[in-house]
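User: Predict the full complex structure for these chains.
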Amino acid sequence: MRSVKIARTIIELNTLLNQYRISSTIGFVPTMGALHQGHLSLINESKMQCNFTVCSIFVNPTQFNDKKDLERYPRTEDEDLKLLKEANCDLVFLPSVLEMYPEPDKRVFDFGTLDKVLDGEARPGHFNGVAQIVSKLFDIVKPTKAFFGLKDYQQVLIIKALVKQLNFNIEIIACPILREKDGLAMSSRNALLNVSERKLAALIPQLMSSIPSLITAGYSFNRILLHFETKFLANGYNLDYLKLANAQTLQIENDFTDNHQQIVLIACFVGKIRLIDNLLL
Amino acid sequence: MRSVKIARTIIELNTLLNQYRISSTIGFVPTMGALHQGHLSLINESKMQCNFTVCSIFVNPTQFNDKKDLERYPRTEDEDLKLLKEANCDLVFLPSVLEMYPEPDKRVFDFGTLDKVLDGEARPGHFNGVAQIVSKLFDIVKPTKAFFGLKDYQQVLIIKALVKQLNFNIEIIACPILREKDGLAMSSRNALLNVSERKLAALIPQLMSSIPSLITAGYSFNRILLHFETKFLANGYNLDYLKLANAQTLQIENDFTDNHQQIVLIACFVGKIRLIDNLLL
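Assistant: Here is the predicted structure of the two-chain assembly.
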């Protein structure tokens, strides 16, 4: 097993990376750490498609609209490095907040509908912070391809729009959601659930996976929404939103159609922990 | 004389440039064309400090707050290429508007005081457009050093702030103002002046260069401003602004001080043509 190289500053990163920039295709997996199998599947995909893989671990303060959420976000650096070493990741970038924000980043981005609905509406400023840090990391790492998980479906569309709006010569690879045995989408936040909350959380994939058969049975989207709300209420946790959208534009839609691909997106609070998931129809 | 390489697309640029990225230091001179000796002095400085020099020619629509100004801005591509060939520039990047803006750039930048005073106030949106295009060009060219003329003093400070705010690993080199025989600061816009306007324009450097002796003579800044206004009025053209500022922060100041370096900045209209100049005290 090769040891994974570690860079904590941009200068260290360039010292380790510059020699590979011409001869190698560089794959990049930006993360906030607390790595799980979902992250590792991105590392593996990068290793399949590129011959040098960089993973960044940085809990980006500017994308947290909720201070408490930022404070409680899990940080497991030693375990993360162990997993990245086992995954044969070539280089890990672990910058400090001051290294990434020597000056406050005052940029305001605009992605039309994409950043105004769903989590863009529920978490004001979240995607602006995501665009700030991802554009900075793209500038610093200068990858050939970057890998993102489809659990954050809206984020993937925004990153693709960012790359187009800023002329980044980077291919964005969207990778499938990985799930626990009970179907719960893998997320660093799952580690924050207590045992009973963790059990309850399984209701999300159960309900989501039931949607196709409910559609076949002729249920309208509003009927399904009502069904979800009842179930969540009965189990005592809060549905933040359940929405139907055009899978390309994320325009919110009222009911199912065969004219274009649609996606159902869900966000809910299990205790204090906010979880999201989605289902492409 | 080597022939200068020409790239009109980002892909062409990378094809020509990638081979030099590791072994060479890349110097970059972004321009809007209509090249004059001032631009060529930036090319020469780049060739002194770097071993591969890229010049971009792109009249950036997003930095023109005045459509008429954009339409009348001089475009002299053939002459520019001839001059760059004579200057032994290695590579010229001549992108189309669609190549630079495949999607509208919706970013809004904020540089504190720097982009709110002087030309930031007189030309709303101008520096936001400058920040958009320069950050895009920096991402595309990825230079070691970039060279800018001090005639656009406020622009130089904003570019330095941009580089810090966005973590660009690029050194910004500010180069002295080049002047015509009669002292007029070299500018592409000078070509738009008719003969009588061109004669009148010499008043700007005459008045600016008189400031140090006026200060020595004990004149206050307001007294000097009045003196300027009278002279301009007498010659029948409009002073847009004459301002005294902190040379580092561009905070506007009311009178001279020895506590820190100051700069006098001027913008005025000779006929329809807006000219700027400055004098570091």
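The mean pLDDT of chain B is 95.
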